[in-house]
């Protein structure tokens, strides 16, 4: 199905509703689901954290994704231009915050994705199957202690991102998504199935789903809320930008609900793949950012056909990361193209290079700069990740929720929301959630963390 509708500004459109869903799901599903969700779940004690995370997705995440997409589609602009066009004044800062968040997140995202590219290369060479499984986790420490190879893979990943973004909306962003996402889903399903049937399977399920509410302290709540934003690509205008390429017939609530469901499912599946290994081999659930890299390869090293499965898995992980990183870069590029009238190619190349440089301290943060602690005992990479996910994204999300619930003309919101085959009762439900529930929840979690209760 191809729609070719005139838009207010001449810019690309997704070629179909499926293309829009796949691209948005591609943005949402990434390292956040497979690298970050399991490790923060491990650090915050499992079940209660997971359930609160799902609660945040439903009450804040989905309404906010709808809000971003309708603002994008209505204005057909980058985040800064969108707020300028709709209201102007201080609200434009919300768009700016998004562009800055795009810079910051992409800078370290490329480093972690670089680890995945390195693991793809290692899997392809059969490294995991040649090792005794007890030695597999050491491979990760070796990588972290090698600054040059981290910089190298970070550069490789940034280059891939830049090449796709130069290609533009349809040819670049969309085509790739449609093929790889379903394969990723399948392989995760297989890994989770293997996990559930392993000796640690039952304990993993208990860990992930039976809540011990005493573990849900204020930092855990903020982490879960922040991760809902990070995982769904919210609070910084990525979904706003993708919405700006959506055609007029698509039902935005349907897209947002589908994408959020897929994203949550992938996170849970990767938890179900990783934690059985943790418990079967007596590893530490709170091992931190290396968790996925230390656990799954142990499984690959033991299973028949491990080299092939490992290669396929890391290929897909790199791919999932790419479909997210392109959406991060796209926010920045859309801003320079729309607001500063730069060409797409120039904007992509220049910003890609600058963001790479900003990411260098993150790449060095585990070795050369390992004694530089920014927030608490956290190194540079973990600190910038914490700043973005726990503060900048929820703040951006809070502003977008307040804007769309209290400031934006409700006629516009209602009109956009009900386009396509959207059930009419969705509008009042969305309006209630975005106007009251989402801002209050974000504010409560912030105040809770600040020690007010
Ligand atoms: N959602 C992506 C992930 O889970 C990361 C991301 C955050 C992408 C914000 C775009 C915007 O990996």
UniProtKB/TrEMBL annotation:
Spell out the subcellular localization from the entry.
Membrane
Q: Where is the signal peptide?
A: none
What GO terms fall under cellular component here?
Answer: membrane
TM segment ranges: 12-35, 47-71, 91-117, 151-169, 181-200, 220-243, 255-279, 308-335, 347-364, 391-413, 425-447
One MF term in the entry's GO annotations:
symporter activity
Keyword annotations for this protein?
Answer: Membrane, Symport, Transmembrane, Transmembrane helix, Transport
Which CDD domains does this UniProt record tie to the protein?
Answer: SLC6sbd_Tyt1-Like
Offer one Pfam family short name for this entry: SNF
Q: What is its main location?
A: membrane
Q: How does it sit in the membrane?
A: Multi-pass membrane protein
Lineage, top-rank taxon, reads Bacteria
UniProt-listed InterPro entries: Na/ntran_symport, SNS_sf, YocR/YhdH-like
The Swiss-Prot or TrEMBL record describes its family as follows: Belongs to the sodium:neurotransmitter symporter (SNF) (TC 2.A.22) family.
* Descriptive protein name: Transporter
Annotated organism of origin:
Geoanaerobacter pelophilus
Give the classification, highest ranks.
Bacteria, Pseudomonadati, Thermodesulfobacteriota, Desulfuromonadia, Geobacterales
């Amino acid at each position: 199905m191809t729609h070719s509708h005139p838009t207010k500004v001449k810019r690309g459109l997704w070629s179909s509703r499926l293309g829009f869903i796949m691209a948005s799901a591609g943005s949402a599903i990434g390292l956040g689901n497979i690298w970050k969700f399991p490790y923060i779940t491990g650090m915050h004690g499992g079940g209660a954290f997971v359930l609160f995370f799902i609660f945040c997705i439903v009450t804040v995440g989905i309404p906010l994704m709808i809000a971003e997409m309708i603002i994008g589609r209505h204005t057909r602009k980058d985040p800064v231009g969108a707020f300028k066009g709709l209201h102007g004044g201080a609200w434009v800062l919300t768009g700016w915050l998004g562009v800055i968040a795009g810079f910051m997140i992409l800078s370290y995202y490329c480093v972690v994705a670089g680890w995945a590219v390195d693991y793809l290369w290692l899997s392809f060479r059969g490294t995991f199957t040649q090792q005794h499984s007890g030695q597999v986790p050491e491979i990760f420490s070796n990588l972290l202690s090698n600054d040059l190879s981290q910089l190298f893979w970070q550069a490789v990943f940034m280059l891939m991102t830049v090449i796709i973004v130069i290609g533009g909306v349809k040819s670049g962003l969309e085509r790739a998504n449609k093929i790889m996402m379903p394969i990723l889903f399948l392989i995760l399903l297989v890994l989770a199935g293997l996990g559930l049937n392993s000796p640690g399977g039952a304990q993993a399920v208990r860990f992930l789903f039976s809540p011990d509410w005493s573990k849900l302290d204020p930092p855990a709540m903020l982490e879960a809320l922040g991760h809902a934003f990070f995982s769904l690509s919210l609070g910084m205008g990525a979904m706003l930008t993708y919405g700006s390429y959506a055609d007029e017939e698509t039902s935005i609530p349907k897209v947002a609900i589908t994408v959020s469901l897929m994203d949550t499912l992938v996170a849970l599946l990767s938890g179900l793949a990783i934690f059985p290994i943790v418990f079967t081999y007596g590893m530490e659930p709170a091992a931190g950012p290396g968790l996925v890299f230390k656990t799954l390869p142990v499984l690959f090293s033991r299973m028949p056909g491990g080299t092939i499965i490992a290669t396929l898995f890391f290929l897909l992980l790199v791919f999932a990361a790419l479909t997210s990183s392109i959406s991060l870069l796209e926010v920045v590029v859309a801003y320079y193209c729309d607001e500063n009238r730069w060409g797409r190619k120039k904007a992509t190349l220049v910003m890609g290079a600058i963001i790479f440089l900003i990411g260098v301290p993150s790449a060095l943060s585990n070795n050369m700069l390992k004694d530089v602690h920014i927030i608490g005992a956290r190194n540079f990479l973990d600190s910038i990740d914490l700043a973005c996910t726990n503060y900048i994204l929820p703040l951006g999300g809070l502003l977008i929720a307040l804007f769309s619930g209290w400031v934006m003309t409700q006629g516009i919101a209602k009109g956009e929301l009900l386009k396509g085959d959207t059930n009419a009762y969705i509008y009042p439900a969305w309006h209630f959630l975005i106007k009251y529930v989402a801002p209050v929840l974000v504010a409560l979690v912030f105040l809770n963390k600040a020690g007010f209760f």
